[in-house]
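Marked as duplicate of an earlier ticket. Keeping the data here for the record.
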Amino acid sequence: MEITPIRTEADHRTAVAEIERLWDAREGTEAFDRLDVLATLVDAWEARRWPVAELDPVDTIKADMALNGRSLGDLTAVIGKSRATEVLKRQRPLTLGMIRKLHQAWHIPADRLVGEYQLASKG
C-alpha cells in the first residue's frame, strides 16, 4: 500500500478521489486500511489548510442550532424565553445553570459553553 504525503491541492484532490472510491470498503480488508490512512491524512491536511477558529459559547450555541435545525423556541424551552433572546444577542452571560441545562438537553460539551466572551455594549 503506497501512500504519499498530501502537500498540494492536487495531492488533496487525488486523496479525496481515492477515499470516495474506497468508501464502501469492508473493515478488516486492505482497502479499508488504505481508506483509514487516507482519511487521516486528508483530515490533518485540511485542518492545517483551513483551520477552524475556536467558537465562543454564544457562537457554539448558534452553530448547534443551525446544525441540528433548532429554533429560538427550542432554546427557549431549555433556558427560558427572555434569557434565550438575551444570550443570543450577547446581552446576558450564560449562567452555570444554563450551561448545565444546555449540556444535558442538547449534549453540547460543557467546556464549549464556559469560556469568556464579549457581551454587547449597552447604550
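See parent ticket for discussion. The chain has a mean pLDDT of 92.
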